[in-house]
């Protein structure tokens, strides 16, 4: 993704676009141009989903602070021996006890709770990093789609210009009785079709621009043209290097965070085997004689170890599954990586052949066909076919370049690379 930025839109073949100024009528806003870097930065600053993660982290931090608190003391008021019968009727024989109780945690439970909370916070941040990669990759995909559609609009505009100039040439030959009138009709139909194709391309560009704006978190596409070097296809790392990066991507580091969380939860559950003490101290008042006495006690729950065992077994089962989930996810990601890598290299090959071999030949053929038609040696259909083949090849070059960049974006997303962390690359 990092290599598509902030230069004026250029094309590799001579004469496809006269100047970038030709793009001023592409039905775009008059705002500043949009680069891939700018689109990504805008998404990181304004995308509502990323902003929402900050609240998730704040909530988890609050829970982490809560986990460090000791059990709260309890204040109890107990009134006995009231409303009975005989000597215990009324409240004359009542006993009133006011006591303060405190659970004394044993076995390091508070530290274990804090470890679980810290592990959950780490997992939350990992999920945030993964989602950020998803959003950055989606912005890059939509930017490439917009950039490619801008190029298709320019090609459609050139197609209309060619059709109109061809129609004029055909009309002159028809008036000179050097060509049948049917050729003039065909040429006018070609102009109408080219105009419709241009309208379709402009409408599609508006859709692409709005989609790009939505990916950045904006409601409207108020930016100018997208700027980038679509035909710049830089060399990529070998497949083995991408696999190595895949292993260190946030998607798989997240499994390590999950493992640490499960380990911390098991440790906490193990600590629950040891029962906590409950200490109580208070004062008791006897209505008869207005006597006062102290009360104190210690409580110890029974069978704490047996009650903790089922939860420990369940947590250990979940703990054991994580590695198999990681292996399964890695195999799936590696398969996707291989497919995207093959598609990327194939797109690079197609773009190279079209740019270096097909287009020069078609440009030469078009010029020769035009020359021959004007001298009556070729028919209009042969001239129109030469024009269409050239325009189709130019679109194919755009499509191949867009496929290259889209597949590379997918590869970099799988490998965990992001414009937000690695920056620009020429």
UniProtKB/TrEMBL annotation:
Keywords: Signal. Transmembrane segments: none annotated. InterPro entries: MdtP/NodT-like, OMP_efflux. The keyword Signal applies. It comes from the Bacteria. Residues 1-18 form the signal peptide. One of its GO terms (molecular function) is efflux transmembrane transporter activity. It holds the Pfam family OEP. Belongs to the outer membrane factor (OMF) (TC 1.B.17) family. This is Outer membrane protein, cobalt-zinc-cadmium efflux system.
